[in-house]
Design brief:
By secondary structure, the protein is mainly alpha-helical. It has one domain (3-162). It contains six helices and no strands. The structure holds zinc ion.
């Protein structure tokens, strides 16, 4: 999944559970594997030995890199623009929501066994778009629909928490 969707899930978790950082951070991290399971198309470098100017590298530079830069920029700005958002928890949850892909990136650069074990788990839980290609249009529809749902849910969660905790115990 594109990072803007993983990031939005982290923002939702932070704002739904501001009183429970441990739950918000775990939910953000676990949500990554759940979201990766949804049918979609991923650009990126599947192979660390991919050659410069190869289609993988071109896709990465065209799509994954701007997606990553925009996600991190917006995630950093959002709690500064929306005062009711918890700042550190929002940043932490966005980081937790994209962390599996960062670990995967490290696994492509290092052969350290724990990283490779995580990579196998990540691949196993990931929708396989090589086996079942998802057309670009559908990929966009799926991402935009889920992103919109996350934004609406975050707005509702902030409002609900303003009138008492969503998870009061
Ligand atoms: Zn992933």
């Amino acid at each position: 999944m594109h990072w803007f969707l993983h990031g939005a899930t982290g923002v939702l978790a932070a704002n739904a559970l501001p009183q429970h950082p441990e739950l918000a951070l775990s939910a953000s991290f676990i949500s990554h594997y759940a979201l990766d399971h949804v049918p979609h198309w991923d650009p990126g470098i599947a192979d660390a030995t991919a050659k410069w100017r190869s289609p993988e590298v071109r896709e990465f530079l065209l799509i994954s890199l701007p997606d990553g830069v925009l996600t991190v920029t917006f995630a950093l700005l959002l709690p500064l623009l929306v005062p009711s958002m918890p700042m550190w928890l929002t940043w932490g949850c966005v980081a937790a929501a994209i962390l599996p892909d960062i670990i995967d990136g490290a696994a492509k650069l290092s052969n350290w066994p724990p990283l490779q074990a995580h990579r196998r788990l990540h691949d196993a839980t990931h929708f396989n778009h090589y086996l079942m290609p998802v057309p670009w249009g559908w990929n966009l529809v799926i991402h935009v629909a889920m992103f919109t749902a996350m934004i609406v849910a975050t707005y509702l969660a902030i409002n609900a928490n303003a009138h008492g905790s969503l998870l009061a115990y």
